[in-house]
Amino acid sequence: MTEDEATDTLSPRERERYDRQMGPGVLTAEGQEKLKSATALVTRTGGMGGPAALMLTMAGVGRVIIAHGGELISPDLNRQILGSEPLLGKPRALYFAAYLRSMNRYVEVEDIDHEPDDEEAKELAERSDIVLSCPPTMEERLRLNRAASEARVPFLDAAQWGMTGTLAVMKPGETACLQCLYPEEPPFEELFPVVGAISSAMGSLAALEAIKILSGSGQPMWNRMLTYDGYHGQIRTSDLRRDPHCGCCSSMPSAREGS
Amino acid sequence: MKIRVLLTGRGYQIAQHVPDPLEVPDGCRVTEAIALVAQRLPADQALPDSCLVAVQGKHLGSVRSHDEATLQEGDELMLIAPVAGG
Ligand SMILES: [Zn+2]
Questions:
Q1: Quick check: is B86 in a domain?
Q2: Burial of A10 by CB count in 10 Å (0-12 exposed, 13-18 middle, 19+ buried)?
Q3: How many domains are there within chain A?
Q4: CB-based contact (8 Å) between A166 and chain B?
Q5: What is the Å distance from ligand 1's center to A183 Cα?
Q6: Do B86 and A239 touch (CB under 8 A)?
Q7: Which of A10, A71, A117, A176 pairs with A146 at a CA distance of 20 to 30 A?
Q8: How far is the CA of A249 from the centre of ligand 1 (A)?
Q9: Domain count, chain B
Q10: In this structure, what CATH number is given to the domain that contains residue A45?
């Protein structure tokens, strides 16, 4: 077996790769090994999910599953950092995954070229240790929330509009879930305004929370929503209220140990 | 008394004429404060029912359905219109 072959133990080359993120105030060697043995689902991988998937890949999450349908178009390129001009007209998931693989040989990247339906979302969440929800519709977000709840894995919802963004950090059975906040799907336009700098920031912050949770480092923002209002230059966090009558999580016993 | 107001999320630009701080009656309840904010919006604009409501960093529910509370001088009312952009 060569030193780069997959095991849960870090090879010397992997230790070299992650040298700057292992140490005081960042990850322990054990935490980095936990990342290596973890699987993260990111859907979709545009303005927010793209930088999230990139940061998870570069940080060394062992398996990153990305889902994103369709082909890259010009208006995507104000924010979709996994894309580039030569990829215009090409399928996003296939090429985005190739770029991710080019950034870290020690990570397995799995690409899904469409938006998962209820059944597939559930199957994917069950194969994952965390779900990062970054799609452009509330319908997809609520679907991913239900899938993460059923699979009992942490759920991070990163969302944006214009120059503002939100990030909610949730654990099924222990915190509010997305449906506690939105029992009915709120209306949202398909062509929302967006500046790439805010979507990229929210995606990176979601990745940071995922890295903390998966590696056991720092203090995750459990049951809180971060609001970054770039337009007014204001940042807030709010403690979330769990809905005792939530159609998704109200009857759920506590999440599994260690999740 | 005066409270702080931050209207954010989808459509935040409609809040440009909502004063911050906002003058409200002493002992003002959250529902009344939300109505006072809504009155300051442009005539063709309204707060969505699904807008999240938080006071002093504590999420109380949505404009449609939220826990009631009495505001104190200097409290911050945050209204977060749902965002779902990716
Ligand atoms: Zn819930």
A1: no
A2: buried
A3: 1
A4: yes
A5: 8
A6: no
A7: A71
A8: 4
A9: 1
A10: 3.40.50.720
Amino acid at B10: R
Fill in the DSSP letter of residue A199.
Answer: H
Q: What is the DSSP letter of A31?
A: H
Domain assignment present for residue B67? The answer is: yes
- Asked if residue B44 is part of any domain, the answer here is yes
Dihedral sign of CA atoms A244, A247, A248, A250 in order: positive
Which residues have CB under 8 Å from A256's CB, separation 6+?
A152
Q: B84 and A136 in contact by Cβ < 8 A?
A: yes
pLDDT at A128: 98
Report yes or no: A66 and A109 within 8 Å, Cβ to Cβ.
yes
Which of these, A102, A158, A142, A121, lies nearest to A41 by C-alpha position? A121
- Give the integer Cα–Cα distance in Å for B32 and A249: 31
Whether B85 is in a domain gets the answer no
Q: Chain A partners of B60 at a C-beta cutoff of 8 Å? A: 241
- Closest C-alpha to A143, from A128, A160, A123, A127: A123
CATH of the domain at B70: 3.10.20.30
Place of tokens 């994917």: A124
pLDDT tens digits, one per residue of B34-79: 999 999 999 999 999 999 999 999 999 999 999 999 999 999 999 9
Contact A162 B50 (CB under 8 A): no
Residues from chain B contacting residue A229 (CB–CB below 8 Å):
6, 8, 12
pTM higher than the cut 0.90: yes
